[in-house]
Write a structure and sequence with these properties.
6 strands; elongated; 30% helix; three-stranded parallel sheet; alpha/beta
């Protein structure tokens, strides 16, 4: 039943700006709802800007919902690149089938898929203590779902 809303605003106001915004979420439970709103402004003075917004969500159970609203406002025609992407989906049945066909239980297969989904982003941080802390938090949430 939780509702989480994330808003980000990236303002490129100088030449040679560079940004990458990546948000990932996994939702479970009846009426779980997330909203991601990513606003990016490339101002007139921001020549050679390169920016990209990305939002990915895994819907783990029926009744969970994720909305994504990426917005680009470009006031300059001399940029290197600007883009956005969003995807929300449930587990890939082929991934689950592959893992389960190798003797891994469905619950453990789902845990591995979610863990990998977040690890891809978390491992980019590059600070072992932070990476370990965040992966422990993911594991703690996954352990809670085992009892539900």
């Amino acid at each position: 039943g939780q509702h989480l809303e994330h808003r980000v605003f990236v303002d490129h106001s100088q030449p040679n700006c560079y940004s990458r915004v990546t948000y990932k979420g996994a939702l479970q439970g009846n009426d779980a709802h997330s909203v991601w709103i990513g606003d990016c402004l490339i101002q007139e003075a921001a020549d050679d800007t390169d920016t990209y917004e990305l939002n990915r969500n895994l819907v783990l159970t029926e009744g969970a919902k994720a909305d994504s609203v990426p917005n680009l406002e470009i006031e300059n025609g001399e940029i290197r690149g600007a883009g956005h992407a969003s995807a929300t989906g449930r587990f890939d049945d082929e991934q689950l089938f592959y893992l389960m066909s190798r003797g891994i239980s469905e619950h453990e297969a789902r845990r591995l898929v979610v863990r990998g989904f977040f690890a891809e982003l978390i491992n980019q941080i590059g600070v072992p203590e932070v990476v370990d802390h965040l992966m422990e938090a993911v594991e703690a949430e996954l352990a809670k779902s085992r009892t539900n």
